Amino acid sequence: MLSCMSNKNRRRGFTLVELLVVIAIIGVLVGLLLPAVQAAREAARRMSCGNNFKQLGLGIHNYHAAYNQLPTHKTGTGLAMATGWDQSNLNGNCQELSMLVALTPFVEAQALWEQISNPMPGFQSMGPTPDVTTYSPWVTELPTLRCPSDPGVGSPGLARTNYAACLGDSAYSMTHGPRSNLLTLSSTAAGAARANQRGVFVPRDKAAFRDILDGLANTIMMGEIATDLGDRDTRTAAKAAGALVGGLGINPADCSTGKDNNRPQFWASGTATILDGGNAAFGRGFRWADGNPVYSTMQTISPPNSPACSTNQGIIDGSGALTSSATADKNYGLMPAGSRHQGGCHVLMGDGSVKFITDSIEAGSQSTRMVSNIEGNAGPPSTLPGSASPYGLWGALGTRAGKEVVSGDF
Fold it and tell me: What Pfam families does the entry give (predicted)?
C-alpha cells in the first residue's frame, strides 16, 4: 500500500526529447520576433530622422522670415591670402562655410553660434576654414544634423552631417558659384553659375523663396546623405573620376563603373577614390560646416543611393578656364542623396514637408550630359541652359525654375 502511494505522488520530469522540443519552439519564436523588433527600431529611427529634417525646414523658414532670404551656401569671411580660396587658412574661412552654419541659431544651437560669430582665442569671428581641427565649433557634432540610422562617428571625420543642401541637376559651378578662385565677382563665373546651378541653393550667391518658380511643394531644398564608414562604400567614398568637361559631365553613368562584381555597393580594390593616399578625412558628410561638395551637398542627377564621384576640376578663373583645386574634396563631382534606411532616403521640400524618395524614382537617362553653358548640347534632348531637366522626375524636383510639370505623388 505504501509503495503504491509513493509511486502516485512522485512528480514526473521532462524527458530529453520534450526539453529539446521546447528549446526549438523558443528558438523559432525568437527568430520570428527579432526581425520584428529590428524593424520597429528602424521605423523609430527613420521617424526621428524625418523629425530632424522637419526641424531644419522650420529653421530655414524662420531664417527666411528674419532676413528675407535663404541661408547662403558657401559663405563667410574673405580670402585673407593671395593663393586662392581652396587653401587651408587660420585667419579666415575663405567663404567655404555651409548653409548649416548660418542655420545654427534657428535649430536650437544658439550657444554654438555665439562661439562661431565671436572671436575665440587664436581665431577671428566666423572661424578659420572648416578643415581646421583645432577650432572647437567645427568639431562639435549637432544631434539635429545626425540621422540615428547612420552609425558613422568619430575620426577621421570632424563633426558629421546627414543632411545636405540641394544644388540641382548639374555639377558645373558647384564649388565657386559666381566668384573666381580669388573670391572676386567674375562676370564669366556669374553667368556660368546662373545657367548651371539650378537648385534652391547656389554656392556663394543669395537666394530666396521668390526664386523657386516651380513651387515650394515641388522643389527639393535638402536631401539626406550617408556618412563614410571607411569601407569603400560607393555612396560615401567618392570615386576619383577624372575630368568633368568631356567626361563625367557628358556621361554621368561613368560614375557607376569600377564596382566590385561580388559586392556592387562597394568599389573594387583597383578603383581609386579621393580617400586614397592619406586623404581618409575626405569622406562623405565628414564636416557639417564645410560647404564643399562631398561634405554638405547633393544633386538630383543620379537616383538616391547611387555612387558618388569627384572630378579633377573645381575652380573657374577670370578667363573662364577650369582648373583643379588644391585638394580633391573641393572639386566638382556627382554627389547623390542616400541613407542607411532601406530602399531610399528623405528629402526636405521647399514648403517644409519631408518626403521619402525611393531608389527607383524615375531619373531619366544617366547617359545624358548635364545642363551646362560650358558644353551645352542642342539635343535631343536639349541640355542647353534653361532646358528642362534631363533626369526625369528626380531631376525636375531638384530644379527651382525648370518649369517642369510634376504631377501626382512621388
Answer: N_methyl, SBP_bac_10
Q: Residue 59 contacts by C-beta under 8 Å, 6 or more apart in sequence? A: 103, 106, 107
* E strands, 149-215, in order: 163-166
The closest alpha carbon to 125, from 134, 113, 142, 133, belongs to 113
* The three cell numbers locating residue 397: 524636383
Q: What count of other Cβ atoms lies within 10 Å of the Cβ of residue 22?
A: 11
Write out the H or E segment, with its range, that includes residue 4.
helix 2-9
Q: 195 by DSSP, 3-state: which?
A: helix
pLDDT tens by residue, 36-79: 666 778 889 999 999 999 999 999 999 999 999 999 999 999 88
Among 206, 208, 171, which residue's Cα sits nearest to residue 192? 171
Other C-beta atoms closer than 10 Å to the C-beta of 192 total: 23
Task: Report the C-alpha dihedral over residues 319, 322, 323, 329, rounded to 10 degrees.
Answer: 130
Backbone phi and psi for residue 408, each to the nearest 5 degrees, phi listed first: 75, 180
E strand or H helix at 239: strand 239-240
pLDDT tens, 279-315? 999 999 999 999 999 999 999 999 999 999 999 998 8
**322 C-beta neighbours (distance < 10 Å), count:** 19
Rounded distance, CA 397 to CA 79, Å?
34
Beta strands across the sheet bearing 309-310: 239-240, 309-310, 333-334
Q: Which of 161, 170, 164 is nearest to 333 (CA)?
A: 170
CA 24 to chain centroid? 46
In terms of Cα–Cα distance, which of 204, 200, 157, 197 is closest to 179?
A: 204
Q: What is the pLDDT of residues 388-401, one digit of tens each?
A: 999 999 999 999 99
Q: Closest Cα partner for 314 from 301, 295, 333, 342?
A: 333
To the nearest 10°, report the CA torsion of 227, 295, 331, 300.
80
Alpha-carbon distance 130 to 311, whole Å? 21
Task: Count how many Cα atoms sit within 13 Å of the Cα of residue 326 in the half-sphere of its side chain.
Answer: 10
| Helix ranges restricted to H, 223-275 | none
